[in-house]
Amino acid sequence: MFFNVYSFSLIFSILFLVIIVVEIKKGNLLEKYSLFWIFFSIVMIVISANLRFLNLLSRMLHIYYAPSVLFLLGLLFIISYCFHLTLIISKQTESIVKLTQEVAILKNMVEKSSRDVEGGKGD
Fold first, then answer.
1. Is the whole-model pTM more than 0.90?
2. Domain boundaries, the chain
3. 41: exposed, middle or buried (C-beta count within 10 Å: 0-12, 13-18, 19+)?
4. In the chain, pLDDT over 70 holds for what percent of residues?
5. Are 44 and 68 in contact (CB under 8 A)?
6. Do 54 and 70 meet the contact criterion of CB atoms below 8 Å apart?
7. 5 contact partners, CB below 8 Å, separation of at least 6
8. Residues near 14 by beta carbon (within 8 Å), at least 6 away in sequence
């Protein structure tokens, strides 16, 4: 097997899958966020290993340089994953605002209680 864009893509996809699994085992990457990456790397492994499928897919999409399909799939995946992360950030932002408001209310209640206690001691 000689080194070309197909073998590079296959080696990179396999290495990427191994890195994802290692990071999950270390606890650096949560399983729910890694599912996209695992799916992506498996798809890239299958497409990179099956040149006939890649050529068929490129003909169906009217792409004349078959390896460009790999880059197109990668780009589409990254765009969709960025959108997914944006949704997560939006939900977390709402949660942070709500938690901040609740902490402010609790802090106000504690300060008010401590003032009431201090005011009652002087009587």
1. no
2. 5-122
3. buried
4. 95
5. no
6. yes
7. 67, 70
8. 41, 45
